[in-house]
Amino acid sequence: xxxxxxxxxxxxxxxxxxxxxxxxxxxxxxxxxxxxxxxxxxxxxxxxxxxxxxxxxxxxxxxxxxxxxxxxxxxxxxxxxxxxxxxxxxxxxxxxxxxxxxxxxxxxxxxxxxxxxxxxxxxxxxxxxxxxxxxxxxxxxxxxxxxxxxxxxxxxxxxxxxxxxxxxxxxxxxxxxxxxxxxxxxxxxxxxxxxxxxxxxxxxxxxxxxxxxxxxxxxxxxxxxxxxxxxxxxxxxxxxxxxxxxxxxxxxxxxxxxxxxxxxxx
Length: 266
Prior knowledge:
The chain contains 8 helices and 9 strands. The protein is an alpha/beta fold.
């Protein structure tokens, strides 16, 4: 048996609910072996981020080359990139190693609202990482920030923003609807063949820490196992919905707690 391998390039969450920790839990839940490249250390818990320590860009490079030089990586998920020098290191590494699948989650802020990406780094996302991505997974505020536009409201406006993000070079775009209102949370998958609306019931819980990280890593896990993008997104959304529904069972922290990555096991 050869286990599929996925790599997460992201920041560390000291409380374990988001970032590298959430990604590795997600990979494990999908039966995928997880490797990691850490871009930043955060002092963080369910109530917010209190400090960020950036990893030097040359050490990010060293981690990337160490992983790809030995492991047969089938898919890469990129999360918190923090600053331009780290974006440059990631882009150069992806050029050297040419992984087949890249899922980019353009993390700008944590669930708590704390800023995780320097303003000057947004242009690097647009020009150096988005054009390499198989799929990008912005939420509504992130899509607006990448386009320097107001947050979209309504299906037509969201689809329009998705098409403009697609024009930046990504092969597909998934705009997540969690920040919208209504009984359903609707994500929009935009690709060369059109727009697909993916609806799911909105779950009443405040324990949603790490949802964005976990969704993108679940999609990367599906791609690592051989799924096509639409199938990987569908499986990831179904898994995430169950993980959010089970989140209140964990009782972790006194703020916005994590989802239950291993709801299928305990």
